Amino acid sequence: MAGHSKWANIQHRKGRQDAKRGKIFTKLIKEITVAARQGGGDQNFNPRLRLAVDKAKEENMPADNIDRAVKRGTGELDGVSYEEARYEGYGIAGAAVMVDCLTDNKTRTVADVRHAFSKYGGNMGTDGCVAFQFKHCGYLIFAPGTDEDAIMDAALEAGAEDVVTNDDGSIEVITPPYEFTLVRETLEKAGFKAELGDVTMKPQNEIVLTGDDAARMQKLIDMIEALDDVQDVYTSAVIEE
Fold first, then answer.
1. SS3 call for 136
2. Are 229 and 126 in contact (CB under 8 A)?
3. Residue 144: helix, strand or coil by DSSP?
4. I need a surface site. Which of 48, 147, 174, 207 has the fewest CB within 10 A?
5. Which residues of 201-217 are buried (b: 16+ CB within 10 A; e: fewer)?
6. Rounded to the nearest 5°, which phi and psi values hold at 71?
7. C-alpha–C-alpha distance, residues 95 and 208, integer Å
8. Cα 36 to the chain's mean position, in Å?
9. Phi, psi of 73, deg, nearest 5
10. Domains of the chain by range and CATH?
11. With b meaning 16 or more CB within 10 Å and e meaning fewer, what string describes 25-58?
């Protein structure tokens, strides 16, 4: 399969993620707490919790912090009760935007998200208006020059769903969402280390934005991501530098 050229955009996104690491512990603690509350504190029977804990360990979160977050989720420790909320809408040029939040006050959160959409030319829509355009999955991206045949064999054997070669030579490995860590670790043992990877809501179709449209879309995403209650922002927009 072929996709459009995206390596520069991938590097740009990686840099932006690195710059936001100050908020990562707060987001991960919320996710661990909610995952434990919904599915219990045993990672062997709660794939969402296992994924959240794996991410926390990757970010070098102290084990005590992880343990306390799990116990707050299971009710062994007191703590704030967070609710999940997903808001959907449209950005510049009709690009789909999906915003996942964990909040203790939905009234505040929906107002903040709606304000961010409207300030930079977007529109918040109704539930389900863009969700069908995304697929819940894991992804791993490998640099141009990676041996396509070798990584395809290794990835599919590890349990990946698909391997996509982009026009610029970068390779994407798509995984089931809760098999992401296993597939990545298996590939690393086989000698393939991804440049970037995560569990995401992957857009089925993308809209490439350039110039002023790209700048406006980036401001919209940045404002939404800066909100305290926002965990993740997904969009079908590809913002070209």
1. strand
2. no
3. coil
4. 147
5. bbbeebbbbeeebbebb
6. -65, -35
7. 9
8. 19
9. -65, -40
10. 21-74 (1.10.10.200)
11. bebbbbbbbbbbbebebebeebbbbbbbbbbbee
Q: Are 71 and 53 in contact (CB under 8 A)?
A: no
Contact of 180 with 138, CB cutoff 8 Å: yes
Sign (positive or negative) of CA dihedral 50, 55, 56, 58: positive
Query: pTM of this prediction?
Result: 0.85
The DSSP output letter for 132 is G
Residues in the chain: 241
Q: Are 184 and 64 in contact (CB under 8 A)?
A: no
Neighbour-count burial for 141-156, b at 16+ CB within 10 Å, e otherwise: bbbeebeeeebbebbe
Angle at 61 between CA 59 and CA 66, to 5 degrees: 130
**pLDDT digits 0-9 by tens, 63-105:** 999 999 999 999 999 988 899 999 999 999 999 999 999 999 9
Residue 59's φ and ψ, nearest 5 degrees, are -90, 10
Structure tokens that stand for 33 in this block: 């707490």
* Tokens at 117, concatenated: 């959409």
